[in-house]
Design brief:
The chain is of the alpha/beta class and 610 residues long. The protein contains 19 helices and 24 strands. Helices cover 36% and strands 22% of the residues. The chain binds fructose -6-phosphate. It is an enzyme of class 2 (transferase).
């Protein structure tokens, strides 16, 4: 079984199709991939299939001048099992070379389908995708079905637990894209005389700002001047278009060597954007009153997320408890999906997800909806799956995040949680919420972040001195500082491959301190009055065992030999600042090792499989 978080682009109705496909695939590079391919047809009987292992530049170099066409599909494949190879790369095609297919997702019952319907058929690849394209061909050729009917028949045979985004081409109707999705993201881009389809709007922004959603269990037939959506029962579906007013250059690196550095630098602007979008002139939160009413009814808030988003949830939980007095729990989505704790009577669910597509989190949301519990998704991607499926959405307004390691989405999540916590707290007339001058505080945060991102040279030298050689490192802290320690350690490990742990500093002495040896880096985060002294004592314990200690400390708690001093802000918001040096330490450690900062090994940006 292969697993993919692949990228898909399709276009019809323009003789620029090759460059649109290649540029679109480049915009989807963030999703992770290890091979890429395109298929184009010029409507006069010529068609071309090119696939290459490795980076898109290899594919680009393989494109000769005669390769052109007005309709085409492109794909980046990311495999976790099996060797990436040209034969396993997409597009896949039927043995008679009539049908070409790209696919993102996993067909769980592909072996059964192969055994039941395709015995005797010779397969070129090991993929589940090839089974689908051969099956479509069989239904068309042997049962005389038209392509759309055969496609539908195959979609009905695919088991419910499968996930897919498919774009199919048929040599007999070379201007047409046959499109369907289930759980995997895919949307239509609407052009003037041409149309597109892709996994993410960023892949189409150069051509259009107008988009159309595709829902699960629909077939979309896309031609140059027509988009026809039908459900699986053949009913025609009307669909409004929507606009994404994002500048295509928002997804460009500009002069930055890596997206991650650009995204770290954008954080002060993101904080200001959140203020603009969510706080009025008087600093009062502007949040949907129905959402507030729904949370007001709740006896407990459940925050669900994965990875960095889970860490942002840990920080947010403290804000919800302190500003609203509603008990709040935070759960890792892949755990909660299969080990649901005993629930309170009136839960309210908050899903934190940058991409809005994370399969683990969606699994929880599907269950939550089945139980009839209310839900909110906080996401960076409008119209993403979790946004569409939850009762309410709050957007992060962080702009596209392309680097695999999440930075500005984390700080945006924390800031939006602060907005929501204040809004609920005020709605419930909780005194701490009214006192909390969030607008002023986020202004201080933005200025503080700017000072931190401006101190890159210092962070680069700290990274090279302390983190370039060791194989292990620790981030430690208590309370909210521990939550940031977890996120900081994740950043370091995922892009620099240093094995890093985020630890509750008081817990070290209960076992883990045995790992500390001469020059083990231990980074202490100290931003809270109540626990500062305790964490400092814990740092002394590791210093006496030879550790190299780095400190990230809030100004009013700082001492002369602290490494990095953060400006003072409200204690609830210190994570917005303490995480920034940690992001940059990870960045410079990775850079110093000559690694691909934006695309760490084994990882993909959008994790659409469980
Ligand atoms: C780490 C990172 C991941 C994501 C996680 C959830 O830097 O980016 O840990 O946070 O895969 O993704 P979203 O937030 O899209 O649900």
């Amino acid at each position: 079984m292969e697993m993919r978080m692949c990228g898909i682009v399709g276009v019809t109705g323009t003789n620029q199709s090759v460059s649109i496909l290649i540029e679109g695939l480049e915009r989807l590079e963030y999703r992770g991939y290890d091979s890429a391919g395109i298929y184009v047809n010029d409507q006069s009987g010529n068609d071309y299939l090119v696939k290459r292992v490795g980076r898109i530049v290899n594919l680009k170099n393989a494109i000769t001048p005669e390769i052109s066409g007005s309709t085409g599909i492109g794909h980046t494949r990311w495999a976790t099992h099996g060797v990436p190879s040209e034969t396993n790369a997409h597009p896949h095609f039927s043995n008679d070379e009539r049908f070409y297919l790209v696919h993102n997702g996993v067909i769980e019952n592909f072996k059964q389908l192969k055994e039941e319907y395709l015995s005797g058929v010779e397969f070129k690849s090991d993929t589940d995708t090839e089974v689908i394209v051969q099956l479509i061909d069989r239904f068309v050729v042997e049962y005389n079905m038209d392509t759309q009917a055969a496609f539908l028949k195959v979609l009905r045979l695919v088991s419910d637990d499968s996930s897919y985004a498919f774009v199919l081409m048929d040599r007999e109707t070379p201007d047409t894209l046959f499109v369907a999705k289930n759980k995997s993201p895919l949307l239509v881009g609407v052009g003037d005389g041409f149309n597109l389809v892709a996994s993410d709007a960023v892949a189409m922004l150069k051509q259009t700002h107008t988009f159309m959603e595709i829902q699960d269990q629909e077939i979309v037939v896309v031609k140059p001047a027509e988009i026809l959506i039908t459900d699986f029962d053949g009913n025609e579906m009307k669909r409004d278009t929507f606009q994404v007013e994002m500048d295509a250059s928002a997804a460009d690196k500009g002069t930055y060597p890596f997206y991650m550095l650009k995204e770290v630098d954008e954080q002060p602007a993101v904080m200001r954007k959140i203020v603009q979008n969510y706080l009025n002139e008087d600093g009062d939160p502007v949040v949907d009153s129905q959402l507030l009413e729904s949370i007001k009814e709740a006896d407990r808030i459940y925050i669900i997320g994965a990875g960095t988003s889970y860490h942002a949830g840990l920080v947010g939980a403290k804000m919800f408890e302190q500003l609203t007095n509603i008990p709040t729990e935070v759960h890792i989505s892949s755990e909660f999906a299969y080990e649901q704790p005993i629930m309170s009577k009136k839960p309210f669910f908050i899903f934190l997800t940058q991409s809005g597509e994370t399969a683990d989190s969606r699994e929880v949301l599907v269950n939550v909806k089945k139980q009839g519990w209310p839900s909110l998704t906080i996401t960076n991607v409008p119209k993403s799956t979790l946004s569409r499926e939850a009762d309410y959405t709050m957007l992060l307004h962080a702009g596209p995040e392309i680097a695999v390691a999440s930075t500005k989405a984390y700080t945006a999540q924390v800031a939006v949680e602060a907005v929501l916590a204040k809004a609920i707290g005020e709605y419930l007339k909780h005194p701490r919420a009214a006192e909390f001058d969030l607008k002023h505080q986020l202004g201080l945060v933005a200025v503080g972040m700017q000072a931190l991102v401006d101190s890159k040279e210092k962070l680069e030298s700290v990274a090279s001195r302390y983190l370039s050689k060791p194989r292990n490192a620790f981030y430690i802290g208590r309370g909210t500082d521990w939550s940031v320690a977890l996120e900081s350690a994740l950043k370091l490990k995922e892009i620099s491959y240093v094995q890093a742990e985020g630890f509750a500093s008081g817990e070290l002495k209960h076992g883990t301190i045995a790992l500390i040896e001469s020059q083990t880096p231990v980074i202490g985060i100290i931003t809270q009055d109540r626990t500062a002294g305790l964490t400092r004592s814990n740092l002394q314990e590791v210093i006496s065992r030879g550790a190299s200690v780095i400190t990230i400390v809030t100004k009013h708690l700082a001492q002369t030999d602290d490494t990095i001093v953060l400006p003072d802000v409200d204690p609830l918001l210190t994570p917005l600042l303490s995480v920034v040096p940690a992001q940059l330490l990870a960045y410079y450690t990775s850079l110093g090792k000559g690694l691909d900062v934006d695309k760490p090994r084994n990882l993909a940006k959008s994790v659409t499989v469980q």
